[in-house]
Amino acid sequence: MVSGSNFSDVRFLTVAExxxxxxxxxxxxxxxxxxxxxxxxxxxxxxxxPESAVQQYLRSASVExxxxxx
Length: 70
Known about the structure:
Blueprint: E1 12-14, H1 15-22, H2 26-35, E2 41-43, E3 46-50, H3 51-60
Antiparallel strand pairs: 1-3, 2-3
């Protein structure tokens, strides 16, 4: 996800921003973060998700039954 320890190039998104990009509720994003399916950094009581983690999650997500046949 992040090479080395250089975080200056990383863009962090709020839970609300991630929810908007993914078109899901904020609760769904919180569930993904708490289950460990989506990495996040906690600042006090709020979470920030690296933009690259959202892109990687969406790339790896697959729709069941969508194999190109049918």
